[in-house]
Fold this protein.
Amino acid sequence: MPFNNNFKKITVAENGIILTYKTKKSKELLFSELDKTHLKINKIKPVYKLILILMLLIVEFLSYLYLQAELILLISFFLIVVITLLMNKHKSYSIKIRLRDGNVIEEKILTKLKLETIDIINEVQKGIYNYKINLNKN
């Protein structure tokens, strides 16, 4: 059951992580409550790609009705190239934290903060791994 908590910052503590929300509240999750964390790449959905292609075809048809032949070819070519490049380049990222009780915390992150978030995820996964190792020793 995924849900969005709108947390602003993740801080790795000694025995867990601290989620700081946009409402200035914070919640601590122990490593014993965490199951898995990862970074997800969100691309444009195929439905949106289909809508963009249909829009391009409509623009091309309307330009065929009202413009000269040279302009039609030029406009449609540039539109198709630009929109194809934008569709393939566009990516957004989100961090997913899965808890042991089955809940999933998901929050979108900025592309600029991707590398910083990867470092935090690595620290969290290291903490989960160390918790599991210490649990097996006892």
Q: What stands out?
A: The first helix runs from residue 46 to 66.
